[in-house]
């Protein structure tokens, strides 16, 4: 194993510990396992797409450290990320690529800046894939419970466009979140590999919603009794 590969593995291991220590204090649903899934998906997408795997893995590990919901503001978050990366003997270009990828990852109700680099696209795609499918459904209901929202309220209308503030703080339900974000994500992916992975996850959400409304409305098929 070359020295530089050993060094990178060491950086990854130390970064895992750092991220775990920061997310331990979080209660908004950004747990370590989300980070771990995004990191693993990100590395696979990076390989498929020919992106820099180390940059993607580091950015995926650190992407929620820069989240304003966790550290108070995006500025504080990006400063923590910069300070953390400065501890390691990385090339300036590599360090800046990690920072660039992290700075564009968040959705913010559709108000975020699009990623400019392939690595930024890969990390955002991986983060978005973790917001759809079975995992995405589970996370939406966890989040709604955490915020004290209902799982569904048919009287509430779906918000078509919203500011970042409205997205974070306006009234919503877990089911509304599917229309405000989750069902839109497959068309907002950047890489072909992520689009392919999104197909089944998207279909699963549609199937889930069909079944949900059937049960909600108490629609019983007489043939179910036979
Ligand atoms: P953002 O993508 O805006 O940064 P997060 O990634 O912090 O939002 O969201 C964490 C998880 O909670 C995601 O799976 C997301 O889909 C879900 N979530 C965010 N907002 C809501 C909401 N209003 N209702 C239900 N789930 C939500
Ligand atoms: Ni995330």
Account of the protein in words:
The chain is mainly α and 226 residues long. The protein has a single domain (3-216), classed as Hypothetical protein af1432 (Orthogonal Bundle). Helix content is 63%, strand content 0%. It is built from eleven helices and no strands. Helix 1 (3-23) runs parallel beside helix 3 (53-62), helix 2 packs across helix 7 and helix 5 packs antiparallel against helix 6. The chain binds adenosine-5'-diphosphate (ADP) and nickel (II) ion. The site of adenosine-5'-diphosphate has 15 residues, from helix 8 and helix 10.
SSE topology sketch:
Elements: H1 3-23, H2 32-49, H3 53-62, H4 68-71, H5 74-86, H6 92-103, H7 118-129, H8 133-147, H9 164-169, H10 174-180, H11 192-216
Helix pairs in contact: 1-3, 2-3, 2-7, 3-6, 3-7, 5-6, 6-7, 7-11, 8-10
The structure holds adenosine-5'-diphosphate and nickel (II) ion (NI).
Quickly list its features:
mainly alpha, 0% strand, Hypothetical protein af1432, 226 residues, binds nickel (II) ion
Give a short overview.
The protein has 226 residues and is mainly alpha-helical. It has eleven helices and no strands.
Task: Tell me the helix content.
Answer: 55-70%
Q: Tell me about the biggest sheet?
A: none
Total number of distinct structural domains: 1
Can you tell me the residue ranges where pLDDT is under 50 for at least 5 consecutive residues? none
* Helix segment tally: 11
CATH architecture: Orthogonal Bundle
Globally, the shape reads elongated
What small ligands are held by the chains? adenosine-5'-diphosphate, nickel (II) ion
Average pLDDT confidence is 90
